[in-house]
Amino acid sequence: MNVVSFDELQQQFPEAFCQHLSMFGALSEESLNFLLQQGSLLAVQRGDKLFCRGDNSDKFYVILNASVRFYQDRDNDGERVPLRLYVAGEQIGFVGMIGLHQRRGDAIVEQEGYLLEISSALFHQLCEAYPEMFMIFLINITREMSREISHLDEMYVAKS
Questions:
Q1: What is the mean pLDDT of residues 40-63?
Q2: What is the mean pLDDT of residues 105-111?
Q3: Count of helix runs (H) and strand runs (E) in the chain
Q4: Which residues make Cβ contacts (< 8 Å) with residue 32, sequence separation at least 6?
Q5: Are 133 and 85 in contact (CB under 8 A)?
Q6: What is the pLDDT of residue 77?
Q7: Which residues, 6 or more positions from 110, have their beta carbon under 8 angstroms from its beta carbon?
Q8: Where are the beta strands (DSSP E) in the chain?
Q9: How does strand 91-92 pair with strand 67-73?
Q10: What's the pLDDT tens digit per position in 10-48?
Q11: What is the separation of C-alpha 150 from the centre of its chain, rounded to a whole number of angstroms?
């Protein structure tokens, strides 16, 4: 993983690219630029580990144009089980951060691209600087988490 500048990201993508991602839907340009400029923009390669089981959950990632697979180990045999593939516009790691628990699995980049790392401190700064946009951002995160819960429900029923 390599940190890239906001200027480098702008050279890679059209100006409004990030505004069209579901995680950033309805955010003002000013608040989105705040996140992109204050967060860590990461260029990632296949095989890069974002986090591992047991790591602190003090940040989450918004996928700009990559994919990341999340794995957990099965308790009875230690087999690594792929649970979900996260793609552009989605976030990974928010649940651990907001739940104040250590990572419960491994997140590994499957397709190279770019991610935005948002620390818990930056998340708080967004709340203070742009309270209305913070609420919209939370709605976007909640909407995605709702879709994920529905998907997990379907997977559970299919295996029963």
A1: 97
A2: 97
A3: 5, 9
A4: 18, 19, 24
A5: no
A6: 82
A7: 46, 66, 67, 68, 69, 85
A8: 2-4, 40-44, 49-51, 59-63, 67-73, 80-86, 91-92, 106-111, 113-119
A9: unpaired
A10: 888 877 889 899 999 999 999 999 999 999 999 999 999
A11: 18
